[in-house]
Amino acid sequence: MMEQETEKREAVLGEVLSVAGMEPQALSIRVEKLIQIKTDKIQDLQFEVIKIAKKYNELLKYFHQKMDSLGIGLSGEEMEFQPIKVPDYKLATHSSLKYFSLFLTEEARAVIRNKDREVEEAQEMAEIDIKHVTQQIKHLQYEHQTRLGEMKAEYMTQLKMAQEDHGKQEQELLKDKRELRRLLREKEEMIFVSE
């Protein structure tokens, strides 16, 4: 009986899915996502209830302290307001860091805010330092390229001058060589003529 009813429901679901043009896996994924969204929302709302209950209890405690400081002592039965008790298991179900912020004192929150501010300032200073160093590097690269160009031009000029000097020296050496050959031939002719 139970199996027949389950089969009927599966058949009806299959028809609805085919009419809608959906795959059973797609429906399953969508349902799981929806359940997760709803679960997260429930946890957030539970957290908000805990947060409000804590604030209420703090306010009630402050009220008692103020009444005591004014000399008006009220017992728990005389007061209409009672602290709200929140079970610990509800606190443990919310794994977010929001839970821990409930227990931070105002002084601890101030320290955290100051540290956050210091971190932000340090990040800003680091960004400024990075920009400054980047600008210095670009400037040094520009100076290096300029100096490199100047040195290249200077060395090219020196190379041309050295080539010209070398060419002149070579011409002079060739001229001297011709002159020495001419003198040698003249000497040989003189020796040949004198024999």
UniProtKB/TrEMBL annotation:
Q: Which GO terms describe its biological process?
A: cell motility
GO MF term (any one)? microtubule binding
GO terms under cellular component: Golgi apparatus; microtubule
The superkingdom of the source organism is Eukaryota
Query: Per its record, how is this protein called by name?
Result: Uncharacterized protein
Species lineage: Eukaryota, Metazoa, Ecdysozoa, Arthropoda, Hexapoda
